[in-house]
Design brief:
It is built from seven helices and four strands; from the N terminus they run βαβαββααααα. By secondary structure, it is α+β, with helices and mostly antiparallel strands. Strands 2-1-3-4 form a four-stranded mixed β-sheet, with helices on one face. Strand 1, helix 1 and strand 2 form a beta-alpha-beta unit. Helix 4 packs antiparallel against helix 5. The longest helix has 30 residues. It is globular.
């Protein structure tokens, strides 16, 4: 199979970390897509993903699957003998899904909007609204404070072990640095959690 990605982008990093934790990186050929040059806008790429985003997984029969969590779900279900990152029991699956959605809606998405609307990176193909980007940045800071509180007595976000929730939150904290949003000195629980994830081999994948 092939995975079309931009290695510096956060969504592909989420997939690579997920695969690395399951020991599956060798299962795919990773193909770099240059977003700034618009390689995701070519007819060939749009045929794989009409949303024009990265990453996209292309199976050997030509079937394409886009969206980060959909790709992660494919690996979770296809390789049941690898460590589970989306839960074992109904309760674990529900809690991880809850956190994945919270992180997606209240943390990752506003971080992306802050980047797109304040950096000018995609100004050739969108109308950036600086004030909206700055407002999204404030939402990111609020969620980081919330996450710090949630981690006060926990090593991981939920289920007492590393899950997709940790991977998604970790990559978002790392991505937020491009818009100059960082863990604050008083957010000691968040910093300790981030440091724990950072030393895992998957964080270097």
């Amino acid at each position: 199979m092939k995975i079309f990605e931009t290695k510096t982008a956060p969504n592909p990093r989420r997939v690579r970390m997920f695969m690395a934790e399951k020991g599956l990186l060798e299962k795919a050929e990773f193909i770099e897509i240059d977003l700034q040059k618009g390689e995701n806008l070519t007819p060939e790429y749009v045929a794989r993903n009409p949303m024009k985003k990265v990453p996209v997984m292309e199976l050997d029969d030509g079937t394409c699957v886009a969206e980060t969590m959909a790709i992660c779900r494919y690996f979770e279900e296809s390789y049941p003998d690898t460590p589970t990152l989306l839960g074992d029991t109904p309760l674990e699956k529900a809690l991880i899904e809850q956190w994945v959605r919270w992180i997606e809606f209240y943390f990752f998405s506003p971080t992306g909007m802050c980047f797109q609307h304040t950096s000018g990176y995609f100004k050739d193909r969108m109308n950036p609204i600086k004030e909206w980007g700055e407002e999204c940045g404030q939402s990111v800071r609020k969620f980081m404070a919330f996450l710090n509180d949630q981690l006060a007595d926990k090593e991981y976000i939920c289920c007492d072990r590393l899950t997709a929730a940790d991977i998604n939150a970790f990559t978002t904290v790392a991505f937020a640095r491009v818009v100059n949003i960082r863990i604050q000195p008083e957010q000691t629980h968040l910093q300790a959690w981030y440091d724990r994830i950072k030393v895992r081999p998957s964080a270097q994948a």
